[in-house]
UniProtKB/TrEMBL annotation, chains A, B, C, D:
PANTHER family: CONSERVED EXPRESSED OXIDOREDUCTASE (EUROFUNG), OXIDOREDUCTASE YCEM-RELATED. This is Putative dehydrogenase. Residues 2-120 form the Gfo/Idh/MocA-like oxidoreductase N-terminal domain. SUPFAM superfamilies: NAD(P)-binding Rossmann-fold domains (SSF51735).
Amino acid sequence: MKLGFIGFGPQAKENIIPCCQLISGVEIAGICEKDAHRRRQAQERFRLDCGYSDYRQMIDDLHPDAVIAACYPDDHYEIARFCLDRSIPVFVEKPPAPSSRHLEELITLARRKRTTTGVGMNFRFAAVSTRLKALASGQLSSISLRHYCNKPTDPFWNYASTLRSFLHAQTIHSLDFLIDLCGPVDELAVFGGDEASVIDMTVMVTFANGQHASLITANTSPHFVFDFDAVCSDGRHISSSALWHMGVTEVGKVYANEEEKRWSEHWAPSPLDSGYQRSGYAGQMAEFLAAVEEGRESRISFASVAETYRCLDQIESQVAGRRYIPKPAMHSLTREAV
Amino acid sequence: MKLGFIGFGPQAKENIIPCCQLISGVEIAGICEKDAHRRRQAQERFRLDCGYSDYRQMIDDLHPDAVIAACYPDDHYEIARFCLDRSIPVFVEKPPAPSSRHLEELITLARRKRTTTGVGMNFRFAAVSTRLKALASGQLSSISLRHYCNKPTDPFWNYASTLRSFLHAQTIHSLDFLIDLCGPVDELAVFGGDEASVIDMTVMVTFANGQHASLITANTSPHFVFDFDAVCSDGRHISSSALWHMGVTEVGKVYANEEEKRWSEHWAPSPLDSGYQRSGYAGQMAEFLAAVEEGRESRISFASVAETYRCLDQIESQVAGRRYIPKPAMHSLTREAV
Amino acid sequence: MKLGFIGFGPQAKENIIPCCQLISGVEIAGICEKDAHRRRQAQERFRLDCGYSDYRQMIDDLHPDAVIAACYPDDHYEIARFCLDRSIPVFVEKPPAPSSRHLEELITLARRKRTTTGVGMNFRFAAVSTRLKALASGQLSSISLRHYCNKPTDPFWNYASTLRSFLHAQTIHSLDFLIDLCGPVDELAVFGGDEASVIDMTVMVTFANGQHASLITANTSPHFVFDFDAVCSDGRHISSSALWHMGVTEVGKVYANEEEKRWSEHWAPSPLDSGYQRSGYAGQMAEFLAAVEEGRESRISFASVAETYRCLDQIESQVAGRRYIPKPAMHSLTREAV
Amino acid sequence: MKLGFIGFGPQAKENIIPCCQLISGVEIAGICEKDAHRRRQAQERFRLDCGYSDYRQMIDDLHPDAVIAACYPDDHYEIARFCLDRSIPVFVEKPPAPSSRHLEELITLARRKRTTTGVGMNFRFAAVSTRLKALASGQLSSISLRHYCNKPTDPFWNYASTLRSFLHAQTIHSLDFLIDLCGPVDELAVFGGDEASVIDMTVMVTFANGQHASLITANTSPHFVFDFDAVCSDGRHISSSALWHMGVTEVGKVYANEEEKRWSEHWAPSPLDSGYQRSGYAGQMAEFLAAVEEGRESRISFASVAETYRCLDQIESQVAGRRYIPKPAMHSLTREAV
């Protein structure tokens, strides 16, 4: 399968392209990159005859079986439109589009063209996500997810606000992880918010199936943190830390030394575990390329992130709404409800 | 100081009385216990001449300098009234009273009698709580607290509902811990709730000072869990697990190997740490007895838990309110706010 | 049971006496302490009519059922002799005597007088020790124990050398833990040793039953560390850290998610665990006092640490021997054996 | 750079080849594999025109700039000889040769031909190894390394014994890690050994520079474990677990909350860390290919593992020697030394 890549930044270089290289039959046909230095890097590393700075030309020249882009959100939107117009399967890093409106347009186009699409939602495929789904199956009651990071603290990716930059760069992952686990969202309430460059908020998500989640997120933490605790109604408690550790413990189960209390089962990958399975990058690329090959919609299609975008919008509007109102409407009403 | 104890159940036997024994000058003058077997146990263990089954008689006989009770909430209320009427300092295990109304009555009485009171809020004095307060000082933005346990799943302590049993047995601790840290509560919203014997809820707390907290709690977990993550606006992240581990990490700090990223500082007590400092029981009893000696109000007075009770009532009424309403008022209004 | 205590230093105050107070029927009849300030402290804390500075007088006055001493090793020896001469059961903190010769004398005397003795070997009773014995039962192949601490770095307790101070203050615990687990020692070889005030050595212990252990110990580590990994011949691996965590994993066992690999079972005490069970102090005092009551030899009798002393002597003589020999005899011979 | 690969088993497929693909300018010119199914797999995955089953033919056809082999030890020896005879740089997975004699021959040949060689000693390049070297620099006193695994339990790779299979498959890594850290070995003593298919031994290593190490290893543990504790003479203690966590703590350092005791600094890679840096595979391939390009000896040359082989032989002979001697010579001499 001939692949054309657009963008040779760190994410493409370290995760997306290496994962594609691990998949059988993949040919890195061309890499398009506007920056001359990076373009030369890409050419040398993959011994490509020719480097492109215009993706349109690359696509016209190479006729790739699929296009894979890791750029800015507005580029993603344009590239996706260009590819879908030509019925070329396209995968874009997150965020796939700068707004819900743009995303909806792409979803409609992809449906009309019956063309495979994909978005870089690697957390859905992380080793701990797969295990969580199996272990919580049908019994999940609630989940608390801590997603801390240290950026953005300024607007980037051509977004007008730090808040939207944060939502589309960070929250998109944790929210999508929750929606992938629990399904469509019924209600959403934001606590905390942003102040100057500091974002610190808890998003309470109630799902249509009755489950609820607390998404606790901030841009003030030195490292990337992605930890969760899931509570099952049958007395199973599943926790995870850093996509690396998992713990499971059950009411009434008999553990080592014939004891029931204070024991749990823990999982961790091998010290020698390398590659991209654990972080979900391998699974995400494998799913997209398999979908291209089988001519079907991928599990990470543009359509599959519509609900995530809808919720990101809700968060943004709740926070933005609160920013100008001394006492938020929601809260004073809450008080009456009490 | 002559102490009269009421109730010789596990909490008195394993935590309250041993902590008092560690304090200089304390005399275990008498132990009152209705159960004949336990009464004999108490007499033998402390080589007491006489065992009491009626606390009134014990108090009249021994004229203790303070009374310490670990019974049921309605007993606590009665005992406290009896002691306060006689201006005898009194400490009761949590919950100090079966309802806010009862508690208010005791607070008024204690004020009128200018008598020292105390409640068993040991988490305020836990080793990790003390460190959290020092480390987050003035900069706390939000805190997420996971408080999981496996009981109650049925009404107990003469309460009419499992929910109130759970709130007064478990949530009282975690909520009080948050209020002790952040001060008076401005708003409170409950997500999830109870269904049959399963309680699984997240309580979002907004404090008057603008900080917010997520209290994530359930009765479905095999073990007692008490873990938190605190986010500071200056880029400090403080986490803790099991009242045993603490982690602190700061944006921009230079750690070992001259690195800034992916390092943090961790604290754990000595393997040989024993006694009651870590869990806060020692601190709680020391504070009460010091207050008695100095004739002052204790930091764990009945009045000091009034805000906690007010919030427990709010949680109860929100959950109870939702139980009969298909779509909760708060939520539909939230939607409008969006 | 009337107990007379000798020495009111931190170990007596924080661990030994509190553990005794928790045991039914124990009376703290008297505390002897040479230091006037500490003696007053002890008197006040336990409301004792009279404070003793001479243990002989205290014993003659009070006729205690047992004597419990936490002083210096040469005091322990003298006190034990005094008590055993009078057939009074006696417990001493470790080390029970300043040398093997002194210990042997005490063992002989105790046998002749058929009097109960005890030594403060709390690690034998730690929560993880008990579980290790149950889990490794009959299948232990080897154990690696890391025992790090930060003192002594100078001679203390009237010992002539830092090395013996270290061996009798620290190594006595870890070596006794291993001997309690594996039985009599066949061979012992020391690697590393002492240089100036730094002690850093690995003691290889081969037991009569064929098991072997590596005891890795140093006085250069900021904290007290007591971690182990035990390997069983049936494919069970048991690890422990800080007397607080335990991990067990077995070849071929099916864990959560129907997986065999990379899972293990973990144990940790409750966050609220307090008191002295976990560290073994409670078990040690309970065993001694039970033995006194039942008129039998205790499991922590003077005789029970004879093997430990013999091995401490071997370590000392190997290290001391090497200190003056450029190329240690053992090693050059080892080379020939190869 | 044109690379010819020999062997397309899991190690080549999952680690060696992907790491090479990540390096700039690398061309996977050909893959030789005897097994027809795997050969087809390799051809498809890398879209190679032609699959080779004879490495001689591949090398003659393609004239690769370097050859990279991941086969059996006797294959490695033959391939290396073939390549070195033709002055073609060659990298082989460990073990590079079935015996020290074979390895010496290759070292001599490589020197004579002035040709770059490499061996797959990835642990030298692991993220924790690099940090350990920086942190312990010049102050290391001793290190304890636990290296547990679950195979081999039978002879493999054409070796005659399980012991040598284990030494050349597993111990080679941990021993090489220690020698890379501490330099040439002065003395070596083995405790424990093999019995039926169970190997459980502790190898005490004394280095020429006076440092010592305990290598604790067994084939009875369900998972791969690679944990260490390093003690520095200046009061720094460095620990690591699973090539994933690192802890550093220092005597006298002031940590968070202005405390000196019970704190340490911890390192862990990002949850999203993927690729081969952490496990050292990336560093190993980068070093070899850089050495090829620069026409110099690599840091992982055949010569660089000579000391490791010498020590593996010593271990084998000590264990084998003991197998027939009821009471090992070394031990009885040790006793006299005492």
